[in-house]
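Lecture 7 notes: from sequence to structure.

We start with a single chain of 140 residues. Read the sequence below before looking at the structure.
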Amino acid sequence: MLKGFKDFIFRGNVLDLAVAVVIGSAFTAIVSSFTDGVIKPLLAVFGGTSELGWGFELVSGKPATFVQLGTIVGAVIDFLLIAAVVYFVLVHPANRVMARFSSKEAAVTEIALLTEIRDLLAAERRYDGDTTTTTTIREV
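Now the structure, written as C-alpha cells:
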C-alpha cells in the first residue's frame, strides 16, 4: 500500500503539479500587489470624491451598503494577467516543445487504426476465399 502511494507521489505529473501550484501562488501574490498598488488607485479616480472608491451605495448615507465595482474590476484584471502569463510563459512554450519533439507516427488516430485493421481483415478474408476456391477447383 505504501509502495503504491510512493509511486503515485513520485510520478512526474504530481511533482509538476506541486511545483505549478507553488509558483502560481507566488505569482498570484505579485499580480495582486500590482493590482492593489497600481490598478485600484487608477480605478479610484473614476470613483469621484468618495473615500470608498469606484462603486455605489445601495442605501444612501450607509457606507456598509457600498458596492465596490473597483474591487470586481481589479479581480478581473488579476485573473486576466495571471492567465496571460501562465499561457505565454508555460503553456505556449510547452506546446511548441511537444510539437517539435513529438513523432508524427505517434499521433495515429483511433479511426485510422481501426480503418487499417478493417482493411487487413478484408484482405485476409479475400485471400482465404481465393485459397478455398483454388483448392476446390483442384480437387475436382
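The two ends are 68 Å apart (CA to CA). Keep this in mind for problem set 3.
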